[in-house]
Amino acid sequence: MPITRSELEVLYRDLEIPLYNFALRWVFDPALAEDVVHDAFIRVWNRRDEVIITTFKGFIYKTVQNLALNEMRRRRVRSALIGWFEEPMQDSPDQDLALRQELKDMQKALEKLPLELRGVLLLSEFSDMDYRQISTMLGIAEGTVASRKNRALAQLREQMEEK
Amino acid sequence: MSWSKTYSPSANGWTKLQARIAQEVLRQSRELRLYAAVASVLVVALGLVNTIDFGGAKLLPEPLPANQVVIESGRAVEMKTNATGVHYYWVFQNQN
Predict the structure, then answer these.
(1) Residue A51 in contact with residue A3, Cβ under 8 Å?
(2) Which of A133, A142, B9, B65 has its CA 20 to 30 A from that of A77?
(3) CA–CA separation, A4 vs A26, rounded Å?
(4) A17 shares a domain with A88
(5) Which residues does residue B81 pair with via DSSP β-bridges, in sequence order?
(6) pLDDT for the residue B96
(7) Per the structure, how many domains does chain A have?
(8) Tens digits of residue pLDDT in B25-57
(9) Do A136 and A72 lie in a common domain?
(10) Do B17 and A12 touch (CB under 8 A)?
(11) Nearest-by-CA chain B residue for A99
(12) Running DSSP on this structure, what letter comes out for residue B49?
C-alpha cells in the first residue's frame, strides 16, 4: 500500500533534524542540506508505491548520502570549470558568522576522513541505527562498522590534537 | 568545535517540502500531458497509414467494438484508450 501524505509528514517530522544534521556534514551548507533532505523525501513521494516502512530509515539515509555526494561532485566540477579554485561557500545572508566558522572548521575536520569512514561515523551519530542496521544498509559486516567508526574517531582526535 | 553538535533546520521545513511536492506533481502532470499529445499525434499518423506490416502480424487502424479484446477469424483485436480519451485499435492479424 502506498504511503499517504499524512504518513509522509509523520516520517518527515520524525527524521527531519537528524537527517538535516547528517546532510549538513556532507555539504556544509545549511540551505543546501535542507534541499538535499527535501529532494530525498520527494524521491520517496515519487516512489511511494514501493516504500517499505520497516526499511525506510536505511533507504532515506542512503538517498540523502547519495544526493549529497552527487552535489559535492557537481560543485567540484563547477569549481574546476570556473577557474581551478575552490568555489566559495554560498552563505545565506542570515547565516551568522559563528555558524559559518563552525561549519568551516567541521568541514576541515570531516573532509580529511575517507568517505567510507565518514559515512559510518555520521550514520552512527545521527541516524539512531544500531551497528546491525548500518551493516545491512551498507552491505558490510557489523565488525567492519565498529572498526570504521573507531578509526574515524581516532583520526578526528588526532586532528584535534594537531591543532 | 564539536563535529557532532546538533543544528536546527528552518522552522517551516514541512511547509517547504509540501510546496516542492506540489511543484513536482505539477511538473509530472505537464509531462504526462506532453506524452499524451505526442501519443495522439502518433495515433493520427498511424491512422493515415492503412496497413503496417510487423513481420507475421499486421497493425490496422479500423473501427471495432470498444473496451474488449476480440478474437475472430484469426484476428486478435485490442481496444486502447490513451490519456486524452482517443480510442485506437490494435489488430494483430494472422497472415495465414
Answers:
(1) yes
(2) B9
(3) 29
(4) yes
(5) B87
(6) 45
(7) 2
(8) 899 888 988 988 888 888 777 665 544 545 544
(9) no
(10) yes
(11) B7
(12) S
Predicted pLDDT of residue A100 = 86
The reply to whether the predicted model has a pTM over 0.80 is: no
Do residue A85 and residue A120 come from a single domain?
Answer: no
Give the C-alpha distances (Å, rounded to integers) separating B44 from A84, B52, B62, B91. Answer: 53, 14, 12, 16
Retrieve residue B13's grid coordinates.
Answer: 521545513
Nearest by CB to residue A21, choosing from B7, B14, B24, is B7
Residue range(s) defining the domain that contains residue A21 = 1-94
- pLDDT at residue B95 tops 90: no
H/E element, A82 = none
Stated as kind and residue range, the H or E segment containing B71 is: strand B69-72
- Chain A residue with CA closest to B4: the answer is A125
* Domain match, A7 and A80 both: yes
Here the CATH number for the domain that contains residue A42 is: 1.10.1740.10
Helices (H), chain B: 13-48
In whole angstroms, how far apart are CA B34 and each of A45, B21, B87? 22, 20, 18
Report the percentage of chain A scoring pLDDT > 70. 91
My answer on whether A141 and A82 are in the same domain is no
**Whether residue A146 is found in the same domain as residue A85:** no
Q: What ranges do the domains of chain B cover? A: 13-93
Q: What percent of chain A has pLDDT over 90?
A: 61
pLDDT at A72 over 70: yes
CATH code, A152: 1.10.10.10
